[in-house]
User: Fold these one by one.
Assistant:
Number 1:
Amino acid sequence: MNIVVCIKQILDPEIPARDFRVDSVKCEAERGSANLVTNIFCENALETALQFREAQGGKITAISCGPEGAEDVLRKALALKADDAVLVLNEAPNADPLFVAKTLAAGIRKIGPFDAVLVGREAGDWGAGQTGGLLAEELQVPCISFAENLQPSAASGAVKVKRQTDSGWELLESATPLVITITNHEKNVPRIPKTRDVMQSYRKPLVKWTLAELGIDPSTANSYYRVAELFIPRKETQCEFISGDTLEAKIDAFAHRVTDCMRSM
Amino acid sequence: MIVQDVVCYLFGRAGFDRAAQGILGAGRRLADSLGEKLRAAVLGPADDALTAGAQAVADTVVLAEDAPLEEYHPENFLTALATICNQLQPTAVLLGNDTYSQELAPRLAHRLGGSAASDAVEVVAEGGQLRVTRGVYGGKATAVIALCRSPGVVWVRARAMAPADPTGRPAGEVQRLKLGLKADERVKVVSRHVEAKEGVPLEEARLIVSGGRGLGGPEPFKELQALAKAMGAQMAASRAACDAGWVPPSWQVGQTGKKVAPELYMAIAISGASQHIMGIADAKVICAINRDPDAPIFKHCRFGLVEDYQKVVGPLRDKLSRHS
Ligand SMILES: Cc1cc2nc3c(=O)[nH]c(=O)nc-3n(C[C@H](O)[C@H](O)[C@H](O)COP(=O)(O)OP(=O)(O)OC[C@H]3O[C@@H](n4cnc5c(N)ncnc54)[C@H](O)[C@@H]3O)c2cc1C
Ligand SMILES: Nc1ncnc2c1ncn2[C@@H]1O[C@H](COP(=O)(O)O)[C@@H](O)[C@H]1O
């Protein structure tokens, strides 16, 4: 199987709210002292691909669309033993999901035949949750969303995918090629690369393509949607910390507050 | 192109639940603001309550009951919905935030030549464009997204949307459509598993007890469960607890989990990351037990207890079961 994993670099989503600022004119988050990291669901997707390759063999190509600095997330994928890596250079900061999907689709076609494209269910910055579906439409293949794993199928030219639903899970079987969006699960928690492999990843080849090489017009980066406003909502609640002389008294007071709430329902 | 009307997509099998009511409410208000008609598109078997409920709010109710729509199937539902929308040529298509609707929305927008937006808390029409308000950066910021293409396909936080008042409105006309849909051969649903869970869905629970990574393992969740039972509450968890495999993924609350709106949400050993808060923004009262007084969760709490949960959960259960 040829598996392509789409990887996005984002501003560290774990930075505390008090350190987070936005530029409301440019409608962008301010970088500040925050790190740029791999989107967690892309890591889950890569982990899913690595596990599939370990069990079934195959090849993994990591692809990202972003500025020069996005090379870092691809180096990390190489350190985790992705076979190949491709960076499509795009400097537009707020490119919309259709632009990204068209660019990735063009990149994937240039890479060659594929069986499965794995993407994250959503990116931890803008949380669009659209790239997978749009990519499937661009590539004209089926799409299975919120998958937690990828399994071989007894039928040739097909895979099985276990995916999460609101009330449990379901098992789907699909012909390849297809697009799968990956969600988090205890079995796809990303592995940590070894230091030696991180060092070696810098010696591995990494292909860079420009938008022009893929026939993508950068002026279309916001013809699907654009961010009209970006601001930090103000909402803080005054917390009453339960006090008391003894633990028992505190628990008692806490229980009273709870029963008050339950009574007023 | 002359665009008109608002289409609300409803999943027949879900029935006339709070989500369906919220989608129709949001659709009705948007259609009224545009001076347009509201069409409800119901895919799959619809019961009488759903048909009547949709008729009470929408101007027309389109029922599509082709055999391939008997059970949810991503490709079949997408094709059916795209076919219906191509006939109706709407300005906007609204869907709910169940996982099935989430996966349909962007693909539907693509097929219709429109633009999609996700997780909307508000949708308005301005100067011929839809504008969608949503949380971004894990809930740390709010964005207004302007959709450049038509139709705007938006999935909304369905249960947070107010239902429409049907008073004085004539019942919408029902149209039964035969789409002549050919079942997709590429994707098969092999099996479907619904987790056994007592009581109402988490999204509709009025009391929720939720546990996080600070519990340290699956065993303490049993203690929380006893507390929840004593209160008549539903159980939920943070992503960290789900990722650890302590509880099923369907318990996860937050940006990428369930959006809940209980009267009381009790967070135990949960730090209160913004992504978690995104799922509980509509809770009436949030309270927490956390041993760290600086845990961000307290910034969202009406009241809180700074303690080790191990010392609190057992006695709290005893006190609350005596009260009820
Ligand atoms: C794109 C994205 C989407 C995400 N989606 C979600 C989501 O949907 N839902 C979600 O929950 N998270 C989500 N997250 C993860 C989120 O950022 C946090 O990592 C996660 O919520 C942390 O879970 P936690 O609070 O259980 O764990 P921690 O942050 O580790 O907090 C544990 C807490 O337990 C307390 N504690 C420890 N021991 C005790 C004790 N003995 N007694 C009392 N208190 C104790 C600690 O003080 C601490 O506050 C998402 C992240 C990203 C990047
Ligand atoms: N610029 C990008 N480069 C590579 N993959 C991307 C990019 N943007 C989005 N993706 C993929 O699409 C997923 C969902 O992102 P989004 O639709 O933006 O929420 C991510 O987890 C990635 O797998």
Note: Chain A has two domains: 2-220, 235-265.
Number 2:
Amino acid sequence: MEFKELDPILHSQLRLAVMSLLIGLREADFTFIREKTNATAGNLSVQLNKLRDAGYIEVTKLFRDNYPLTSCKVTSKGIAAFENYVQALQSYMKPGG
Amino acid sequence: MEEKNLTHEESIQIINSMILTARNHYYENGLSAILWGVTNVVCFVLAYLMSAVKGFSFPFNPFFLMGITFVLQLYFDRKERKYRTAKTYAGEMNKYVWLTFGIAVLILTIAGGIADIGYIVLPLLLLLFGMPTFITGCMNKFSPFIIGGIICWLLCIVTLFHKSHETYLLVAAGAVAAWVIPGFILRAQFNKNKLNNGV
């Protein structure tokens, strides 16, 4: 049986958590993602940039009531990558695989 | 969350846990339900008093109060916006369900009023009240809304067979069951969560 290669962008604890969270949401603010993943602001910011650079998420920066607001949502490329990652993971988990 | 080499089991665990977190995210403070529920109760009780009690008068059509509620709703929406840190697909769907309901009620009451379709408006309103309430309850697994929606439909059946001034009170009862009671339950849950999160 052939093993599929795991996407290195997604095969990271925080980036995978962010993608798994965003895949079930229409969009989420930076504060929400930070709260749910228990990540530090600095680390989260770095990982979000990596996901954005890979084209997996779309990051929108706005100002609301004079406060900066960063909003993220998964792109169609991100959904495809996530689905491939899960399929690859399943190929490793199959009995006898 | 620290960075480390992930095993396949850990990956699956992270995916499951985060998908569950997203699925269970439901931000609702109950204010809209209370606001619209109370407004409907006031409007229909006033309509009952105007039709059933001799000499009772109100300076304007009580249903114009809905306009004030609409403005209040916009104000609270704006105020609450900063706390809505994530948008769910269910929340998006909810929004369109209630928008559809609002348009249907406007068509029924305004066009129905002009066409003078009379009494039948009240059972139809109860039928409409039940729909978005029941759908919202099912989508968010919130049983008070599900029960409220069912009560509205039962009251709709009653009002189809029982035509009297009291029908206005039955519509008000529908609003209590569908929105006022679930609204206060949501509010209590929201305040409890807020307290637990130390906000």
Note: The first strand of chain A starts at residue 25 and ends at 29.
